[in-house]
Amino acid sequence: MVTVRPRRIRLVCWVSAALLLVVFSLVATSLTGGTGNGYGTFQRGDQIAMIGLGVFGALGILLFTRPRVVADAKGVRVRNVLGSHELPWEVIRGVRFDRGAPWASLELHDDDLLPMIALQAADKERAVEGVRALRRLHQAHLASLTNTPR
C-alpha cells in the first residue's frame, strides 16, 4: 500500500493559517471606540465577527492540506482539495509526471487526466518516489492480468 501527502504545501498552509488567525485576532482587539466619522462605534460583536472571519479564512487555507493519494493492489484513491476519486487499476492507463508539471496525474483509458495534487513537484524527490511506487503497483496489476489464465 502506498500513501502520499504533500509535505511543503502542508507546512506553508499551517503556518499561513496560524498567522492569519493571529492577524485577525490582533485587528479584532484594536476595534474599539468610534468608527472615525462619528456615526457609529465598534461593539463586542464586531470584534467577535473579525475573529470569526479569521477562523473561516484559516479553515479555507487548511483545505489545501487535504490532498492525499492512497493506492493498493485494487486501485487508487485520490483526494484533492475539493473532490475525491476512487479508481480501479483497470481504468488507469498510466501515471504521468510531465517535466514542468506542478503535480502528477493519472492518465485514464478514456483519455482523461486526473490530477493528483498530493504528488507535487515542490516536494522533489519525495514526489518522484511516490510516482515510482504508483507505477510499480500499476505494473504489478498489468502483470497479474497477463499471468491470469483465461
Describe the structure.
43% of the residues lie in helices and 24% in strands. With 150 residues, the protein is an alpha+beta fold. It has a four-stranded antiparallel beta sheet, covered by helices on one side. Strands 5-6-7 form a three-stranded antiparallel beta sheet. A hairpin with a 3-residue loop joins β2 and β3 (75-79).
Structure at a glance:
This is PH domain-containing protein. The mean pLDDT is 90. By secondary structure, the chain is α+β, with helices and mostly antiparallel strands.
For the record, the CATH architecture of the largest domain stands as Roll
Q: Spans with pLDDT under 50 lasting ≥5 residues?
A: none
Rg result: 23 Å
Q: How far is it from the N-terminal to the C-terminal residue, by CA?
A: 27 Å
Q: Strand count, sense and closure of the main sheet?
A: 4 strands, antiparallel
**How many structural domains are formed by the residues?**
2
Elements, N to C (H/E): EHHEEEEEEH
Helical content, roughly?
40-55%
- Helix count equals 3
> CATH top level of the largest domain?
Mainly Beta
What is the third-level CATH name, the topology of the largest domain? PH-domain like
